[in-house]
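sanity check both lines:
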Amino acid sequence: MSETIKDIIDRLRNGDNVNAEKAFNTAMAGKMNDALDAKKVELASSMVQRKVEEPVEEVPMEKSDATVKDTDESSSTPVNIVDQFRNNSPSIADRAQNKTDDSTSHLLKRGGYLRLNSLIDLNRRFLIINDVFGGKRINFDKEIECIDKLSDLDSAMSYLNDHVVKTYNVNTATKGFEILNKVVVRRFTS
């Protein structure tokens, strides 16, 4: 280490500050790594010694003596925590295998209705706003709200094809208009 210090001092005297700084940083990094390695070895050996000095004592599990008498049965039921929850809940694997209905039709079966906004994802929303409403989100929000308030598919399609197409001069061959038509149909038929 003394050679490294002499080298750094010589470089500083000669005005080679950049290389002196590099040599200093390298020396410090080496010193820190040596200290870190020493601490790792010290920690590992203390853990090994502690493990040897402290024997592990196994504690046998005992069943609880507490019982609950059932009025219908003459037998008693053990009431420790393990026995209470042993077969009552499904495992994580069982819950993962349950098939769930990801569609939105379950909302309608319960008497609710879907809003058009909830049926249009972000990418399609931008496509519809650009293709149908000329890039104006305010117009999109206003017309979607009006269509949402309509009572049936016929009135919604009529409003879409008569009012929206004429008001915003929509090219009905665009992908955005096609998506909007499908979403309106899905909203009122599902």
User: Anything to note?
Assistant: Residues 2-53 form one domain.
